[in-house]
Design goal:
It is a single chain. By secondary structure, this protein is of the alpha/beta class. It folds into two domains: 213 residues, Spore Coat Polysaccharide Biosynthesis Protein SpsA, Chain A (Alpha-Beta Complex); 38 residues. 40% of the residues lie in helices and 18% in strands. It is built from ten helices and nine strands. Strands 1, 2, 3, 4, 5, 6, 7, 8 and 9 form a nine-stranded mixed sheet that branches. The longest helix is centred in the last third of the chain and has 20 residues. It is globular and about 60 Å long. It starts with a strand and ends with a helix.
Length: 265
Amino acid sequence: MKFSIITINYNNAEGLRQTLESVVAQTCRDFEHIVIDGGSTDGSVELIHQYASHISYWVSEPDHGVYHAMNKGIRLASGEYLNFMNSGDCFHSSRVLEEVAPEVEGCDILLGRYCNRDTQEVKQVRRGPVTLLTLLKEPFNHQSMFYARSLFAEQQYDESLRIQSDFKFNVLSIVFGHCRVAFTDVIVADYDFHGISSNVQMVREEKEVVLQQLFPQRVLDDYRYLYTPEEVPLVTLLPELKRYPRIQHLLYRLAKWLLSLKTRQ
Protein backbone atom coordinates (compact mmCIF):
# COMPACT_ATOMS: atom_id res chain seq x y z
CA MET A 1 0.00 0.00 0.00
CA LYS A 2 1.61 3.24 -1.14
CA PHE A 3 0.39 6.65 0.00
CA SER A 4 0.94 10.01 -1.63
CA ILE A 5 1.06 12.82 0.91
CA ILE A 6 0.51 16.18 -0.79
CA THR A 7 1.43 19.38 1.05
CA ILE A 8 0.75 22.83 -0.33
CA ASN A 9 2.29 25.92 1.18
CA TYR A 10 2.59 29.64 0.70
CA ASN A 11 4.55 31.84 3.11
CA ASN A 12 3.87 29.63 6.13
CA ALA A 13 7.35 28.45 7.01
CA GLU A 14 6.65 27.60 10.65
CA GLY A 15 3.48 25.69 9.78
CA LEU A 16 5.35 23.90 7.01
CA ARG A 17 8.09 22.85 9.45
CA GLN A 18 5.52 21.23 11.73
CA THR A 19 3.89 19.43 8.81
CA LEU A 20 7.21 18.16 7.43
CA GLU A 21 8.27 16.86 10.83
CA SER A 22 5.01 14.95 11.26
CA VAL A 23 5.45 13.33 7.85
CA VAL A 24 9.10 12.43 8.41
CA ALA A 25 8.16 10.80 11.74
CA GLN A 26 5.77 8.26 10.18
CA THR A 27 6.67 4.66 11.05
CA CYS A 28 5.14 3.43 7.78
CA ARG A 29 7.63 4.30 5.08
CA ASP A 30 5.63 3.25 2.01
CA PHE A 31 4.72 6.75 0.93
CA GLU A 32 5.89 9.64 -1.21
CA HIS A 33 5.75 13.23 -0.08
CA ILE A 34 5.00 15.92 -2.63
CA VAL A 35 5.39 19.57 -1.61
CA ILE A 36 3.89 22.30 -3.79
CA ASP A 37 5.01 25.78 -2.74
CA GLY A 38 3.47 28.86 -4.30
CA GLY A 39 6.69 30.86 -4.57
CA SER A 40 7.15 31.69 -0.88
CA THR A 41 9.52 34.42 0.23
CA ASP A 42 9.44 33.81 4.01
CA GLY A 43 12.09 31.10 4.30
CA SER A 44 9.84 28.21 3.28
CA VAL A 45 12.05 27.30 0.33
CA GLU A 46 15.16 27.19 2.51
CA LEU A 47 13.25 24.92 4.90
CA ILE A 48 12.26 22.63 2.03
CA HIS A 49 15.94 22.36 1.09
CA GLN A 50 16.70 21.22 4.66
CA TYR A 51 14.15 18.40 4.35
CA ALA A 52 14.84 17.65 0.68
CA SER A 53 16.18 14.15 1.38
CA HIS A 54 12.76 13.24 2.84
CA ILE A 55 10.70 14.80 0.04
CA SER A 56 9.95 12.86 -3.15
CA TYR A 57 9.22 15.93 -5.24
CA TRP A 58 8.93 19.64 -4.60
CA VAL A 59 8.52 22.83 -6.55
CA SER A 60 8.31 26.50 -5.64
CA GLU A 61 6.61 28.67 -8.22
CA PRO A 62 3.61 31.01 -8.42
CA ASP A 63 0.26 29.28 -8.75
CA HIS A 64 -3.38 30.25 -9.11
CA GLY A 65 -4.59 29.32 -5.63
CA VAL A 66 -5.06 26.41 -3.26
CA TYR A 67 -6.80 24.02 -5.63
CA HIS A 68 -4.49 24.74 -8.53
CA ALA A 69 -1.60 23.76 -6.25
CA MET A 70 -3.43 20.64 -5.09
CA ASN A 71 -4.14 19.59 -8.67
CA LYS A 72 -0.45 19.97 -9.48
CA GLY A 73 0.29 17.56 -6.64
CA ILE A 74 -2.39 15.11 -7.80
CA ARG A 75 -0.92 14.94 -11.30
CA LEU A 76 2.46 14.04 -9.81
CA ALA A 77 1.16 11.43 -7.38
CA SER A 78 1.81 7.74 -7.92
CA GLY A 79 0.42 6.33 -4.66
CA GLU A 80 -2.75 4.26 -4.45
CA TYR A 81 -4.26 6.64 -1.89
CA LEU A 82 -3.82 10.40 -1.54
CA ASN A 83 -3.85 12.52 1.60
CA PHE A 84 -3.73 16.32 1.59
CA MET A 85 -1.76 17.49 4.63
CA ASN A 86 -1.29 21.19 4.04
CA SER A 87 1.21 23.39 5.83
CA GLY A 88 0.19 24.02 9.42
CA ASP A 89 -1.68 20.71 9.69
CA CYS A 90 0.01 17.58 11.02
CA PHE A 91 -0.44 13.87 11.40
CA HIS A 92 -1.74 13.23 14.90
CA SER A 93 0.88 10.61 15.67
CA SER A 94 3.83 8.86 14.05
CA ARG A 95 1.71 5.71 13.55
CA VAL A 96 -1.13 7.20 11.49
CA LEU A 97 -0.16 5.71 8.12
CA GLU A 98 0.73 2.38 9.72
CA GLU A 99 -2.68 2.19 11.42
CA VAL A 100 -4.65 3.39 8.40
CA ALA A 101 -3.02 1.09 5.82
CA PRO A 102 -5.02 -2.07 6.71
CA GLU A 103 -8.32 -0.13 6.76
CA VAL A 104 -8.06 1.83 3.54
CA GLU A 105 -8.00 -1.10 1.14
CA GLY A 106 -11.27 -1.77 -0.62
CA CYS A 107 -12.73 1.71 -0.23
CA ASP A 108 -12.58 4.86 -2.35
CA ILE A 109 -12.64 7.35 0.51
CA LEU A 110 -11.61 6.71 4.10
CA LEU A 111 -12.80 9.19 6.73
CA GLY A 112 -10.68 9.50 9.84
CA ARG A 113 -11.01 11.44 13.05
CA TYR A 114 -9.30 14.80 13.55
CA CYS A 115 -8.19 16.96 16.42
CA ASN A 116 -8.62 20.71 16.85
CA ARG A 117 -5.08 21.93 17.55
CA ASP A 118 -6.35 24.78 19.72
CA THR A 119 -8.88 22.95 21.91
CA GLN A 120 -7.57 19.37 21.56
CA GLU A 121 -11.16 18.31 20.88
CA VAL A 122 -11.36 15.16 18.75
CA LYS A 123 -14.09 15.04 16.11
CA GLN A 124 -15.43 12.56 13.59
CA VAL A 125 -18.18 12.48 11.01
CA ARG A 126 -21.07 10.39 12.29
CA ARG A 127 -20.94 6.88 10.87
CA GLY A 128 -23.66 5.71 8.53
CA PRO A 129 -24.73 6.20 4.93
CA VAL A 130 -23.16 9.34 3.47
CA THR A 131 -25.72 11.42 1.57
CA LEU A 132 -25.99 14.99 0.37
CA LEU A 133 -27.58 15.85 3.71
CA THR A 134 -24.55 14.36 5.48
CA LEU A 135 -22.23 16.53 3.44
CA LEU A 136 -24.30 19.62 4.21
CA LYS A 137 -24.62 19.01 7.94
CA GLU A 138 -21.24 17.49 8.73
CA PRO A 139 -18.46 18.95 6.57
CA PHE A 140 -15.60 16.53 6.11
CA ASN A 141 -12.13 17.43 7.32
CA HIS A 142 -9.95 17.23 4.22
CA GLN A 143 -6.72 16.52 6.11
CA SER A 144 -8.18 13.43 7.81
CA MET A 145 -9.31 11.81 4.57
CA PHE A 146 -7.66 9.35 2.19
CA TYR A 147 -8.78 9.31 -1.45
CA ALA A 148 -8.19 6.55 -3.97
CA ARG A 149 -6.08 8.08 -6.73
CA SER A 150 -8.47 6.56 -9.29
CA LEU A 151 -11.14 9.09 -8.22
CA PHE A 152 -9.07 11.86 -9.78
CA ALA A 153 -8.77 10.15 -13.16
CA GLU A 154 -11.90 11.82 -14.56
CA GLN A 155 -12.08 14.97 -12.44
CA GLN A 156 -9.87 17.08 -10.24
CA TYR A 157 -10.57 20.08 -8.05
CA ASP A 158 -12.48 23.01 -9.51
CA GLU A 159 -9.87 25.78 -9.55
CA SER A 160 -12.48 28.51 -9.92
CA LEU A 161 -13.48 27.95 -6.27
CA ARG A 162 -11.45 29.25 -3.32
CA ILE A 163 -12.44 27.07 -0.36
CA GLN A 164 -15.26 24.67 -1.29
CA SER A 165 -13.82 22.74 -4.21
CA ASP A 166 -13.18 19.74 -1.96
CA PHE A 167 -16.88 19.87 -0.96
CA LYS A 168 -17.81 19.87 -4.65
CA PHE A 169 -15.46 16.96 -5.32
CA ASN A 170 -16.99 15.00 -2.44
CA VAL A 171 -20.52 15.58 -3.73
CA LEU A 172 -19.55 14.51 -7.24
CA SER A 173 -17.68 11.43 -6.01
CA ILE A 174 -20.09 10.27 -3.30
CA VAL A 175 -23.55 11.47 -4.33
CA PHE A 176 -23.18 11.24 -8.11
CA GLY A 177 -20.36 8.69 -8.36
CA HIS A 178 -21.59 6.33 -5.60
CA CYS A 179 -18.02 5.73 -4.47
CA ARG A 180 -17.33 3.48 -1.48
CA VAL A 181 -16.90 5.38 1.78
CA ALA A 182 -15.49 3.86 4.97
CA PHE A 183 -14.70 5.14 8.45
CA THR A 184 -11.76 4.65 10.78
CA ASP A 185 -11.33 5.47 14.47
CA VAL A 186 -7.74 6.53 13.83
CA ILE A 187 -7.14 10.19 14.68
CA VAL A 188 -5.48 11.19 11.43
CA ALA A 189 -4.86 14.93 11.62
CA ASP A 190 -4.24 17.77 14.02
CA TYR A 191 -6.05 20.52 12.17
CA ASP A 192 -5.30 24.25 12.19
CA PHE A 193 -8.66 26.04 12.34
CA HIS A 194 -7.21 29.47 11.56
CA GLY A 195 -7.04 29.11 7.78
CA ILE A 196 -9.28 30.68 5.16
CA SER A 197 -11.85 27.89 5.61
CA SER A 198 -12.66 29.32 9.06
CA ASN A 199 -14.49 32.18 7.30
CA VAL A 200 -18.04 30.93 7.87
CA GLN A 201 -19.70 33.45 5.59
CA MET A 202 -17.37 32.65 2.71
CA VAL A 203 -17.94 28.92 3.23
CA ARG A 204 -21.72 29.35 3.06
CA GLU A 205 -21.62 31.57 -0.01
CA GLU A 206 -19.31 29.30 -1.98
CA LYS A 207 -21.16 26.15 -0.91
CA GLU A 208 -24.33 27.76 -2.26
CA VAL A 209 -22.54 28.34 -5.57
CA VAL A 210 -21.60 24.65 -5.73
CA LEU A 211 -25.15 23.50 -4.95
CA GLN A 212 -26.60 25.77 -7.63
CA GLN A 213 -24.10 24.33 -10.12
CA LEU A 214 -24.93 20.70 -9.38
CA PHE A 215 -28.62 20.43 -8.49
CA PRO A 216 -31.99 21.57 -9.85
CA GLN A 217 -33.85 24.06 -7.69
CA ARG A 218 -36.57 21.63 -6.55
CA VAL A 219 -33.98 19.24 -5.14
CA LEU A 220 -32.28 22.10 -3.31
CA ASP A 221 -35.61 23.22 -1.85
CA ASP A 222 -36.14 19.76 -0.36
CA TYR A 223 -32.70 19.62 1.19
CA ARG A 224 -33.02 23.12 2.58
CA TYR A 225 -36.26 22.04 4.24
CA LEU A 226 -34.42 19.15 5.90
CA TYR A 227 -31.42 21.29 6.78
CA THR A 228 -33.20 24.30 8.26
CA PRO A 229 -33.95 22.93 11.77
CA GLU A 230 -30.38 23.78 12.76
CA GLU A 231 -31.05 27.38 11.76
CA VAL A 232 -34.25 27.79 13.80
CA PRO A 233 -33.91 30.72 16.25
CA LEU A 234 -34.91 28.51 19.20
CA VAL A 235 -31.67 26.59 18.71
CA THR A 236 -29.39 29.42 17.65
CA LEU A 237 -30.50 31.64 20.52
CA LEU A 238 -29.70 28.93 23.07
CA PRO A 239 -26.36 27.52 21.88
CA GLU A 240 -25.47 26.24 25.33
CA LEU A 241 -28.21 23.61 24.97
CA LYS A 242 -26.28 22.05 22.10
CA ARG A 243 -23.94 20.53 24.69
CA TYR A 244 -26.78 18.24 25.76
CA PRO A 245 -27.60 15.76 22.96
CA ARG A 246 -31.02 14.73 24.30
CA ILE A 247 -32.22 18.31 24.60
CA GLN A 248 -30.71 19.09 21.21
CA HIS A 249 -32.61 16.16 19.69
CA LEU A 250 -35.87 17.35 21.23
CA LEU A 251 -35.26 20.85 19.89
CA TYR A 252 -34.67 19.50 16.39
CA ARG A 253 -37.89 17.48 16.55
CA LEU A 254 -39.79 20.52 17.76
CA ALA A 255 -38.26 22.63 15.00
CA LYS A 256 -39.27 20.11 12.34
CA TRP A 257 -42.80 20.00 13.72
CA LEU A 258 -43.04 23.80 13.67
CA LEU A 259 -41.77 23.85 10.11
CA SER A 260 -44.32 21.22 9.06
CA LEU A 261 -47.09 23.41 10.49
CA LYS A 262 -45.73 26.36 8.57
CA THR A 263 -45.76 24.47 5.26
CA ARG A 264 -49.38 23.44 5.76
CA GLN A 265 -50.55 27.02 6.03
